[in-house]
Amino acid sequence: WGPMFARIPGPAILWFSVVVFAASNSVVRLLSDLGAQHAIDGRNAISFCNLLFAGNVCAVVALSAAYRKQWTVENLRILSKADWTSLLVLAMLTSFIAPWFFFVALENTMVTSVVLVSQIETPIMLALSSLVFAERLGRWAIVGAAVSVLGVSLSILLQPAADSGYMIGKGEFFAAAAAVIYAVSTVIARPRLRRIPIGIFVVFRNGVGTVAFFIATNYLYGLEHFIDLASPFLWKWMLVYGGIVIVSGQLAWYTGLKGARAIDVSLATSATPIAGVLGAFLILGELPLPAHYAGGAVLVLGILIGLFGGRSKTAAAEERLPALPTATGSTLQSECRTGFRGI
Questions:
Q1: 211-225, 252-266, 315-329 — which is least confidently predicted?
Q2: What is the arithmetic mean of pLDDT over 299-309?
Q3: How many CA atoms lie within 13 A of 73 on its CB side?
Q4: Ramachandran area for residue 71 (φ above 0: left; ψ -120 to 50: alpha; else beta)
Q5: Closest CA to 105 of 19, 178, 162, 23
Q6: Which has the closest alpha carbon to 93: 187, 231, 218, 219?
Q7: CA-CA distances (angstroms) from residue 87 to 80, 102, 119, 185?
Q8: Mean pLDDT across the stretch 200-214?
Q9: What is the average pLDDT across 142-153?
Q10: Which stretches of the chain are assigned E, i.e. beta strand?
Q11: Which residue, of 60, 181, 294, 326, has the fewest CB within 10 Å?
C-alpha cells in the first residue's frame, strides 16, 4: 500500500486521515440509524456492538496485511514480558473499553457533544505528563489547556438540563470517560512502547481489543447478541465503513506520520473538533446548540493558544517526528489527539 501514497505529501495524507477519523462519529450514528430502519425480525443488524466488532475485524485484517513484514521472529524476541504486559494493558484500554464507551456516548447524545467533550484528552495528557514524568510545560501550553477545558465545560454546562435533571447526560459522561482512558493509557504506556515496532503495536492492540470485546459481550448479553453478525446487510455497509473509515484512515495516518513534521501533525489534529462538528452537520444534518457554539469557540481558542503560543520559529521549521519503526512517544501523543478513530 506504500506506493499508493508515495507521491502525496505527508501533511496532506495526515489531513485526509484526520478528516476521516472526525467523520467516523457521524458515520457510526448514520449506519446505526440505517440498520434500525431496516430491522431484521425487529433487530438492528448494524447495532453498535456488531459495528464495533466487525470494524475491529476489518482493521486487524488490513493492518496485518500492511505490517506483516514487521512480525518477524527477530522483532518478537526483543520484546520482554514487561513489553507484552504493557501492550496487553494498552490494548484493553484503547481498543476495547474506550471505544465501547465512545459507542455508548454516540448512542445517547449528539455527535457534536461527543466530539467536543472528547477534546479533554489533550489537557489531561499534558497534566499527567507533568505529574508522572516531571515534564516542564510552557506557560502558553498551560494557558491553552486551561482555556480548552473551559470550552469543553461551557459546551456541557450551557446545555439545557437532561431528562434526569442534570446537564451532564449519559452520553457526555461516557465520552469524557473514554477521553480520560485514552489520555491515561497513552501517558502510562509511553516509556515502555518506545522500542516496540509500530506494526506489532497496532496489530496486537486491535487484535486483543477485538477478542476482548467479543468475550465480554458474550458474557454480558449472551452469544445471541451477535445473531446478525453474518447478515449480508451488515457486511454490505461494512465494505463502505471498513474501506473508507478504517482501512484508508488507518493506513493514511501511519503513512502520513512518516513524512510529516511535528507542527504538521499538531495542525492537522488540532482541526479534529472543527472537522467533527462539520461532519455531524454535513452527514447527519445535526445543528449545533448555542452551548456548542460558545464552548466550541473557546475550545478552538485554547487549542490555538497551546499550538502557536509557545512554538519557536526554529521548532516550527525544523522539528520532525521520528521515523516509525517503533511506537514512539510522539506517535502515541499524536494518536491521542485524534480522539475516536472509528474502531
A1: 315-329
A2: 81
A3: 0
A4: beta
A5: 178
A6: 187
A7: 11, 21, 24, 10
A8: 88
A9: 87
A10: none
A11: 294
